[in-house]
Amino acid sequence: MTLGVRQQPRGAGSPHGGHWTCNRLTFATAEQVVCVVVDDALRLGFGRYPAYRREVDGAAAPVWVAPTGSPLAHTLDEWLRATPGGLDLVTIDGWRIYLPSA
Q: Which H/E stretch holds residue 102?
């Protein structure tokens, strides 16, 4: 997974993604990137370490990360269509990254 070792965009909040996505991001970055677990409906999901969620409460607008073709990506694509200009989409190596618009 090359995604986790790329630099986090300036001004972007912590990434939000599915359980396994967050697990991989956190592991690949030696816990330098804190990821918040969400379910496929963008509700807060189970996070293994509650301090991560506390760390990102009130942070800048989140970055959403989902594998291409996943239910989470579908939900975020629907959000993208419903709110033009709300998110910018970047695709990298089978991943869809939804950044807050500048």
A: none
How far apart CA 98 and CA 95 sit, in angstroms, is: 10
pTM, full prediction: 0.81
Tens of pLDDT, residue by residue over 17-72, are 999 999 898 889 998 888 888 999 999 887 777 777 777 776 678 899 999 999 99
